[in-house]
Amino acid sequence: MWLLISGLGITWGVLLASIVFSATAYAGVQFIANGLLIDVIWALITQILASTVAFYLNYRTQYRLRQQIKRQFEHYLDPRQVKRLQDNPELLKLGGEKRYCTFLFTDVRGFTALSETLEPEQVTYIMNKALTAQQTAVQKHGGMVDKYIGDAMMAIFSAPIDLEKHEEKALLCALDIQNNMRILNKELKKQGISPVQIGIGINTGYAVVGNMGSESRFDYTAIGDAVNVAARLESGTKGAGVDLLIGQATENAIEFDLIPLEPIEAKGKKDKLQVYTWN
User: Fold this and answer.
1) pTM
2) CA–CA dist 19, 5 (Å, integer)
């Protein structure tokens, strides 16, 4: 009974354990009917005790796992994705794995200089509004906000859950971010605050994704060349004179007609990067 519930999980374990319990009880009745004085009462009692304890421990383990998943991802993923992870924890491979994803980086331009002319309350207000505008778009298109770095943001599409056409959804997310920022700038203008501009870089490729950090503090994130290139594309938007730069691998996977730009130099890359932007 213990092995069934502990090894097969709550659903199948309880079902098979019930069958074993019923078979034991039926055997006891047949023993008596055939004149065999074999008492199965204690066997049934021990089955009940063993299965109850195993069920409790199994349920507690799964509950803790669900709560851990919720705490780790509830602020970064859409609630529907968090629920899917809770229902299927096997979708999340802790410790790191190589995945093919699309990475999106954003940065509010000139925010440091702007913050020096505003009150701290205004700086906080603008920062929270700008990051919320970005986070809303990321969740809308099935991505995950990986981290905030000051006034910058990093998002991952197709991790920790597989996402079909993640390259296309990352681009649509970028367009929504730009639209949300235009709406925010209208609000800021009404309050007499200068508008803020944002640069966005998108790139696709393989990266190691998982829980990384020290033993006492770690985060779910991604590392790899594809991630670095996405960050370099974002930082190169100002020099290219556009608000959005898209890498070659991303462009290859989507059906939108993008505008090719002159290749740009990127830190850590020997050859120039072919980049594209939205019309």
Assistant:
1) 0.71
2) 12
- Name the more confident of 8 and 179: 179
- As a whole number of angstroms, the distance between CA 20 and CA 278 comes to 64
C-alpha gyration radius of the chain: 27
274 and 263 in contact (C-beta within 8 Å)?
yes
Dihedral sign computed on CA atoms, order 129, 132, 134, 136: negative
Please state whether beta strands 218-223 and 244-247 pair in parallel, antiparallel, or not at all (unpaired): unpaired
Residue 185 pLDDT greater than 70, yes or no: yes
**pLDDT per position as a tens digit, 242-267:** 999 999 999 999 998 999 999 999 88
**Strand, coil or helix: 90:** helix
The alpha-helical segments, DSSP class H, found in the chain are 2-33, 41-73, 79-87, 111-115, 120-140, 166-190, 225-235, 237-240, 248-253
92-277 is a CATH 3.10.310.70 domain: no
DSSP code for 194: -
Q: Is 117 exposed, middle or buried (0-12, 13-18, 19+ CB in 10 A)?
A: exposed
Q: Rounded CA gap, 241 and 270, in Å? A: 22
Q: Are 278 and 170 in contact (CB under 8 A)?
A: no
Contact 204, 102 (CB under 8 A): yes
3/141 Cα distance (integer angstroms): 42
Domain ranges of the chain: 2-73, 92-277
3-state SS class at 192: coil
* Dist. CA 264–CA 144, nearest whole Å: 28
